[in-house]
Amino acid sequence: MGKTFAQEGYNSHSTPTETSKPLSSPDQDTENQSLINDHSHNDSHSEQAHETHSEHEFKADETAFHHISDLNVYNIGPWNFPLPCILYAKDQGWSIFSSSNFDIDDHHHGSGNKAVDRYALNKGRVMRIIDSSFPMGEVSVEGFKLEEKEVEGKKKETNFVIANGQKYELEKSSTIDGGLFGGGITTFFDFSITKNVFGMILVIGLISWLFLGMARSYKRNPGSAPLGSQKLFEPIILFIQDEVAKPFIGVKYERYMPLLLSIFFFILSLNLFGQIPFFGGANVTGNLAVTLVLAVIVFIVVNLNGNKHYWEHILWMPGIPAWVKTLITPIEILGIFIKPVTLTLRLFANIIAGHIVIIIFISLIFIFGKAGAEPGAAYGASVASVLLALFISSIELLVAFIQAYVFTLLTASYIGAAIEEHHHTEADHH
């Protein structure tokens, strides 16, 4: 029973007796065993090297999506800085702590070495361990895995955390996309100060400080020539007033100037902030939730200020046969909701596309260099990659201004159409 398969095979094919001839001499056996051991060592070494290579293999798509994602850490280069985590789960209530409690690992896209109250930090994002038997408090984490799992007949990528030698399934925070982008309502909600929220607060604080300072300066010296930052911002403000507000809104433009200027400088500042190299690259205006909220604000302002003439042309357009109205009215009503959708997607798509393209060009260095295996190819690719990335970055600077201008222009256009006075009676008199 204790024999190996090789020993059994040997014994079944030979009968060892005093007169039987050995298959090989002791020296040959020693030499053969040495060759076998060397071969086994080489195989083991190659397997280990393959596993190490697989672990450290550069994945361009993963890096790109990690860069544009909204995370629970703020990353600058290879470093990850903790942010406040505000989490709520119905079965365990509120959990408020710093993401530093996860013991962030800078070498693995900001994953945590610890789980806290059944929450884990996977590549910078807080996820929750579904298994209720997982202990509360701080638990050491051995790693994370991404596997395909069949859910309702469809394959779905599922995250797992490995702790105490066991594998536990993770779930992402709740989203209200209705499953359109792979989200939905889960067992917990994340109200944390994330990377994008922190970037937004930082930019709002900066532009508030600038504009409040300019306002105080104008009050102290009314009618004087612009000084300091006023020289930069006053021409831009006058441009929005003279080329956007007045032509599209008309005589009532002053009422809507604060909204137009707020939208323009908010979008422009966030666009430019996201272009600063090696400063986190907060992708705020490339986040669908942010652009959607901006579009909803415009939607509310436009429709609350719409006059009788505006609603009449939408719900029952005058001057055309009734049977045509039954066709046009549904289209006009649909158009009310299409406008904020186009505002949302235009800004989101243009900003996120620029971020992804730059990351892809930079990724060529690591793809050709095979994560350090071929440094010569990496150096060669780096020249073209850096030049292409700089070219796209320069275009992105132009796009930052254009998208802020277009969003503001369309906002003024929609407001102008909603508050436009009725002119048909005047035309009839003439």
What order do the strands of the largest sheet run in, or round the barrel if closed?
10-7-8-9-13-12-11
Spans of at least 5 consecutive residues whose pLDDT stays below 50 are 1-55, 425-430
Strand segment tally: 14
Number of domains: 2
Oligomer: single chain
* Morphology call: globular
Major sheet: 7 strands, antiparallel
Along the chain, the helix and strand elements come as: HHHEEEEEEEEEEEEEEHHHHHHHH
- Terminal Cα separation, in Å? 113 Å
Average pLDDT reading = 80
Explain how this protein is built:
The protein has 430 residues and is α+β, with helices and mostly antiparallel strands. The protein folds into 2 domains: 84-192, no CATH class; 197-421, no CATH class. The chain contains 11 helices and 14 strands. The chain has helices spanning 5-13, 26-55, 60-68, 195-220, 230-249, 253-273, 288-305, 308-315, 322-369, 375-419, 424-429; strands at 73-76, 79-82, 84-89, 93-98, 104-105, 111-112, 114-116, 119-122, 125-129, 138-140, 143-151, 154-163, 166-171, 188-190.
